[in-house]
Amino acid sequence: MNPASSRQRLLELVRRHGWNATAFQTVGAGYTYFFHGDACVAYVDTGYAWVAAGAPIAATEALGDVAESFAHAARAAGKRCCFFATEERFQKAVSGEFESFAVGEQPVWDPHEWLTTLAARPSLREQLRRARAKGVTVRETRDDDLAQGPTRNALNRVAARWMATHHMAPMGFLVSVGPFGTLADRTCFVAEIDDEICGFASVISVPARAGWFIEHLIRDPSAPNGTSELLVDAVMRWANDAGYRWLTLGLAPLAGNVSGILRLLRRVASPLYDFDGLRAYKAKLNPKEWLVIYLTYPVSQSPAISLIDALSAFTRGGFLRFGIRSLLRGPTFALRALATLLVPWTIVLAAAPTYPWFFGTHIKWAWVIFNVLLSFGLFRVVRRPRTPLITALAIAVTFDAALTLLEAMLWNVRHTRGVLDTLIVAVACAAPALAAVILWGARYRIVGASESAVAK
Q1: Using CA atoms, how far apart are residues 318 and 314, in angstroms rounded to an integer?
Q2: For residues 6 and 3, what is the distance between their CA atoms, to the nearest angstrom?
Q3: Running DSSP on this structure, what letter comes out for residue 224?
Q4: Integer angstrom CA distances of residue 64 from 16, 70, 230
Q5: Cβ neighbours of residue 10 under 8 Å, at least 6 residues apart?
Q6: Is the pLDDT at 346 greater than 80, yes or no?
Q7: Which pTM was predicted?
């Protein structure tokens, strides 16, 4: 079956059996489909495992049979398998053959109760007032606006600017950002100021629950405070007027009563992703309930390996490449590490003999003074990110990298001896080059954050 036919068959199944919030996400590109009777599992192949996006898209009574057939097919292909973002319904259907553990929580609202929530939350009403006072308005878009033209282009620009401000590199699988994977059973609300789009909420259907999932809630870094809340308010009112009683903003990862290893992961990864902040934002909108979301895997499979398989589905090319891409965005912890490591390096430079490392004593002390000033600037940026300072530092370190390489070629190559000396020179050349890339990445991110602060 060709990809277009597979996607059309999946779309028909989703409209009949789409119970998971993630169901309609799988109609977009990037997934492989395992069909089994009147059911389907949408998954990505990481190379070692088939990672399914939610539970099988099937009638409730067929879930267990489809899951077992999928696991059998994966084993026959020499792959492990797991189901990411499942709920209690699926757990019960596969009990005995599969195990699960919690990976977060999903908040759910009844749109009919939204006005009551607003009445009880003065702080939420104030956010809406502030956005409206800044001239923000929200409108629903049409399919032809999303298919092509200025609206689509503007939404793409907003999404790109929003992603540029984040520490973590863009991820794939169920969190890939892009409001146009498919226009089927989807609607989009855009926030505007003077006809300029400054945010959007992309909403997809959850047919079997007669509800909707706000798949993407994105604001431009320059959008006023309250823009996101105004978009949520518009979606809630629209859903209420249409008679829908179920709506979610999707998974808050690692939230709730997760295992000790996941709590540790939440703390370790917090410099890259604000897990607590995301849950707190969703909680302030006063959801009706929080549903536990699970990772489900065959009983014969290690839970730790299953978690690694699931995480690899999000990283787009493996953990190493993802880590490098995230590092080169200049996250705060990387800037702090640069500033900290620069201190002992400067001490080593000050204590080192002039020969064979430098042209002369004045060159040596010029580098020492430069590093002291650079370290001071880096610590200042970590405390108070400012665009002019990070720009100056990035330019300075770029020149540092060029001059260090020039000095190595003209002097150190001819005067150093042995493997250790060569290694020191190589590190001295590589370190400022890497630092320059990190600083330019940080500048790109801080510029967006600074624009957002000005708008507020």
Answers
A1: 9
A2: 5
A3: P
A4: 18, 10, 41
A5: 26, 27, 33, 40, 42, 57
A6: yes
A7: 0.85
